[in-house]
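Notebook p. 47: complex prediction with pyridoxal-5'-phosphate.
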Amino acid sequence: MRFETFATQGFLDLKKQNHAVSTPIYANSAYSFDDVEFAVNLFDLKQEGDIYSRITNPTNDISEKRVAALEGGIGALSTSSGMSAILIAILNIAGAGDEIVSTNKIYGGTYNLFYKTFKQMGIDVKLIKSDNLDDWEKAITPKTKCLYTETIGNPGIQVADIEPLAKLAHKHGIPLIVDNTVPTPYVCRPFEFGADIVVHSTTKYLSGHGNAMGGMIVDSGKFDWSQNDKFKMLTTPDESYHGIIYNREFKEAAYIAKARTHLIRDLGCCQSPFNSYLTIMGLESLHVRMQRHSDNALKLAEYLEQNENINFVHYPLLKSDKSYNLAKKYFKNGASSLIAFGVKGDCVKFIESLKLFIHATNIGDARSIITYPAGTTHRQLSDEQLIEAGISKDFMRASVGIENIDDIIEDVEQAIACAVKK
Ligand SMILES: Cc1ncc(COP(=O)(O)O)c(C=O)c1O
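Predicted complex, structure tokens below:
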């Protein structure tokens, strides 16, 4: 099956779901055991099957398998939100005393997790301010457990150079984790360029309608966790499962198996089956929506670029953009919906004059959304941190929806006129 067919029908087993055409929502907490031996084997991880919906659920199973296949990975784990996907993806291989190397140009929530919460947990995240690989390499120490980046940085809209980052990570015997929320696998598949783990906020484009919080962790299955002694959590016995060694028991599926049976079991940030269902509904039109998001965003970016009342505009597929060459290398099917731009005149007036764009802090919704990061998502950052993250006071982020492009441009045009009116 090709991408579009997989997005729509992947792992649909009509017989298994009583011939219901739409994936059912298994809204149950627990599953009955045929006999005690079966239950014992399930608890010892010797037998595949469902015990309790915190760990596995048949609706979640479909969304996990579908996203894993769309990314070209071997397995996936759904979580309650994008933040919990990032948290679990990292806690699965790092603990107190360990380090991570990332960039400071990442989503504000991830920045806070790295800068504050991980610090409190004893994990030191080095946030690199430049794109220079030498700076990344200098920050790597024997304690570093992974490199972390976003394919398209939110809200800076800069494209990561995934291939050399993956090579650098592998040179040091560590994986590259990539947040692929903004492009989705329709635009970019980071595993094809050497990334090892992909995380998603499925809240955004994968579910696509701004109605289902969720996250997903996908494993390429290619990273060898036993190549050095850095990943003892996967290569030495886990006493909470009678000494099971994930790497030995689950082979290339060890990373997701451990994240599910250890961390989701203990931390409990599983995805609700109802949200998985909504995500599956979203996945079924992913390719259609993403193409329209990308086409509309490019047209709006081109319009903004020639407007004299705009200070700057970033969209990876504008020839003038600093990420243009990287976008050409890594992306197919456009560059997703995010545009960053600065309006001359009164920013507050601009936002408040928009009629079609909804003022909210979300992306990847079918509806067009405008966000003012300095006043909302990045409000916790100091002035210095804002400048370092490339967010000026006039910085706007648009997530361009799938409405008619003429309506979108007309809305922005009239709001710009209001912003510059003396
Ligand atoms: C790139 C990126 N990653 C992760 C997240 C966090 O996802 P969630 O809001 O589902 O926790 C967001 C949220 O905006 C995001 O934009």
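Notes: The chain has two domains: 3-282, 287-420. The chain is about 40% helix and 15% strand.
Next step: compare against the earlier run before touching the bench.
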